[in-house]
Each structure stands twice: as structure tokens, then as C-alpha cells.
């Protein structure tokens, strides 16, 4: 019974499979076992899913306790529709390799861009030098 | 948890006979699963409908369709239904037992308690009232049976704990926002502390004005809040009056003694958009004399205000409340207001009236003033009600204004917000034909018959019928 109409509560999501997006960009999939008033989560049989292009890979992680403030969003996974995806699952090694390659190309592109800007006398502030908020 | 009185969260599946709770939704039919009327053979372990009272309509539709499919297929095969809910029995289910769930809910509920839900939870209250109204309407049209939606009700408990949300440490440069378990950090107000620097004097002044406006606004909001939920008790009125007086004094004087400075303070408030909103709302609450005082201040400084308003374009907010106040003006006060427009201000080449006529707010205000004057004059059957000097001043004023309007190009005249219907007859009475024609062209009203009966009206006392006609004609709402 929804004790609090007009509000959002995670109580009804307990024991269901969820996809959780964290602030650091990680994607976790697991069964939501427990919550508290800060929306800290306990995820069971968690898997960290890495997406690169059309491929993805799952790294089994076990039990996760996530501090509530680090969650961007989470949503229930429909077990029926879960397998119905255009994405292709690959092995962990492969996906990590893909990720590394992607990072590399990104960095190189970024380097070229910064170089081009520098030649024109402009500079873009680096992400790590910006304030968090 | 002693302060939370009889809470006993029962099972997740409320039976039809369970009474309304102290906590949680107030449901006349406590079982929301009845909305979806599941079949009698529905396995009890599916608690599906109960938590879906507030789903997005699209989501609700999808789930309903799913349920329908389930229902149809359920009759044929049960394994398909099982698949929806769990691949296999989940051995780790129920790690969080009911007591713990209830505890979390209780804690969340505690955070929702408020002494003034209208203020603290404004959006939910508004939403719920809108929903109720819609349901009442639908019930009225008999479209469907009353579908009571549950409402969140938390018991009223006096919040005894109060905390200083903003702390000022002596000698530090600013303020520190403190967060405790009772509330998060509060946004720090724009309070001017510390030494007044000479170069940023103007900046500080602006801050001062803004700060004053904020203070008054908070007082006004409290007043309006009281008015909304007020019982007609005498001591409430007294309290209201005192509060009102406080705001009025603050507005008029700030912390100045000199009346000239005081007017300055008032004008500074009006130069800010929020200040205009404040005065507009305040005018509706003030007693007559004080409201009139403010209105006359505004009319005597109209050009200044108009100039200061070019950025905001917010003066029209004041029009309606001022219009209401103008209708209460006495004749002498009205004249005072109008005369302010004709006096040449020191240091400016043109008369205020030219600036006023070119501004929408100004010209609307002027028309309203004239209309009210006309009403006052025509309503009094005995012309001796007003002193002859007053009447003479009035006549002069009307003639002068008519002259000004007629000599301004139509292009530069602003479009008024409202043209009162008794103005044409007013002008016809006092002004010659030529000017009347010019006025017609500018004021965009149907040409009035300029026969002798009108012109002759000046000397004869108006008859009852004509007065009534004037009143109806000049009726302003």
C-alpha cells in the first residue's frame, strides 16, 4: 500500500531488479534489497555494465552499498524485456579493451582540439580545474 | 517514537474493512486494488495495483494492458504469469522485513509534518485541490462515479525544535549556514554586514532597497496568508491592522525622518520591479487614507517612475489596485493628484503631462482620474457640494489636459489600457468643437453629438434622469 500518495518512495521497489546510474558514470544492475531514509541502497548480485558503442560487458561485483547522494537515477528492469535489446554482449576483456580504445581516441581528439585552439590563442578550461558545482 | 501516537501499519494488503489510518492516505474505500477489479482467483502474492495510484498516465495504460493480457492468458496457462514476477522463487527476498520498511516510511513521514502545509507543501496542496475540484466537476456531470484519490495526511505535531539556520560568527566575513537533522542549509539572505565602503556606496544603497523590499514582502505574505484563512474575530482584525501599519510605516519612511527623504525611499522601492509588485498587493489591503496617500505620491512623481520603469515595464501591475483606490478619492484629493501633473518640475523642460501621455500606464491613470472626477462632479446634484474654486480648478484642468492631448501627435500618444466611457461627454462639455474633433481622432471613440443640449448643461442643474444616465455611462468596474 502506498502510504504516501503524492510522494515518491523506494519501498515498492524492494526485491526488484534495478538499473542504477551513479554520479561517476558507472551503471550498476542489481536487486534492490534494502533502503533507508537517505535513499542509500543495498544492491544484491550486482553487475557493473560497461557500454561502448553497441557492445556491452558485465562485470559481476556482488553486493553493493551505495550512498544515496551518489545516485543520479534508478529504474526497475522489466525481466521479460531485459533480453530484448539490440546491444551485443561481449566478454569482460573485450569490453575493457574497447573502453580503453575509446578513451584513447577521445584523448587524442581532445589533444588535437586543444592544440588547434592554442594556435588561435584560445584556451578551454580543463574539466578537473572546474568547480564541481 | 513516543510522539507518534497510534501508528500501526498493517499488512501490505489492506482489507476492505480496515478503517482510515492516522497516517497515510485517507481513503473512503481503503483498498485501491479495487480500482482495477482483479479477478477473484487472483493470487494474493501479487500486490500490483496497490502502489500504482500515482503513476504517469502512459505508464498506467501500459501496465493495465499488461494486466489485461495477463488476465486473458492466466486463464490458459499459469506459468506465463509466474514469469512476470520472478524467474524462480527468490531466496533472498524479504531481507528487509516489514518492520524495517515501516520504519523508513515513518521517518519519511516525520519529515513531511508541517504546521502550515499551505506554506510548506504548497504545490502538493494546490495539486490535490485541483484534483478534487476536477473530480467534483466530473461527478457533477455524472460522467463517472466519484473516484476518491488518496490524500497524504500527516498528523499535526508541533515542531518544538527550532534551530538557528544561519549563524553569524563575530569577526568573520560572512554568514555560515548550519544544517542539522531538522533542516538543510538555508539560503543566506542578502544582508549587508561589515563596513560600508565609500566606492560601493551606490551598490550598498541598492542592496538596502532590495533588503527593505524583501522584509516588507515577507510581512505582506504573512498578512495575506492570515487573510486567506482568517476567522472573523475582532482581535485578528486588530493584529492585522497593526501588521499593516508596520508595513506602511516601513514603506513610507524606511529609517528616514525627513518627509522628503521618506518620499525618496518610497520611490526607490517603486523603482524595483518587486517593489511595484509589493505596492500593488499592499494597496489592496491598506485602509483608505493610507492607500490614497500612496496613490497621490505616485501621481505626483509619475514622470520619474515612468523613466525608471523603462527596463522593467512593470508599472501596469499597479493600474488595477490604483484604479480601485482612485474611485475612493475625494474631489480635493483628486485635484491634488491632477495638479501634480501640470506643474513644471525644476530641472526639466517639459511638463509632466507630456511624459505621462506618452506612457501607457500614465495615460490610463490619467483617464481614470478624469473619469472619476467627472463622476464626482455629475453625481452631486447641488453644485455647491464642491467649492467654486475647486470646480474652477477642475474645469481648468480638464481644458488644459484636453488641449495637451489634442496637440500631441497621434503617433506619440500611448494606447491606454482602458478608456472610460464618460470621458467623451466630459470633454464635450468643457471644450470647444475643434478640440473635440482632435480628441475624437486620438481617443478613438465614436463621435458624440455636439448639440446644444450638451453645451447648455453647464448652467442647468442636471435632472435625475440625466444624472442616472451619466452614472451608468461613467460606471467603471
Low-pLDDT residue intervals, each spanning 5 or more residues of chain B: 1-53, 77-83, 446-471
Integer-rounded radius of gyration of chain B: 33 Å
Largest sheet of chain A: 6 strands, mixed
Distance between the termini of chain B: 57 Å
Report the structural category of chain B. mainly alpha
Q: Share of helix among residues of chain A?
A: 10-25%
Q: Total strand count of chain A, please?
A: 6
Task: Name the structural class of chain A.
Answer: alpha+beta
Shape of chain A: extended
Helix and strand arrangement:
The complex is a heterodimer of chains A (133) and B (477).
Chain A: E1 17-22, E2 27-35, E3 41-52, E4 55-66, E5 71-76, E6 88-89, H1 92-119
Chain B: H1 57-74, H2 79-85, H3 98-112, H4 117-120, H5 122-140, E1 166-168, E2 175-177, H6 201-228, H7 234-253, H8 259-271, H9 273-283, H10 288-300, H11 302-308, H12 319-326, H13 331-342, H14 352-357, H15 360-379, H16 388-406, H17 423-430, H18 433-443, H19 452-455, H20 464-473
Antiparallel strand pairs in B: 1-2
Helix pairs in contact in B: 6-7, 6-9, 8-9, 10-13, 12-15, 13-15, 13-16, 16-18
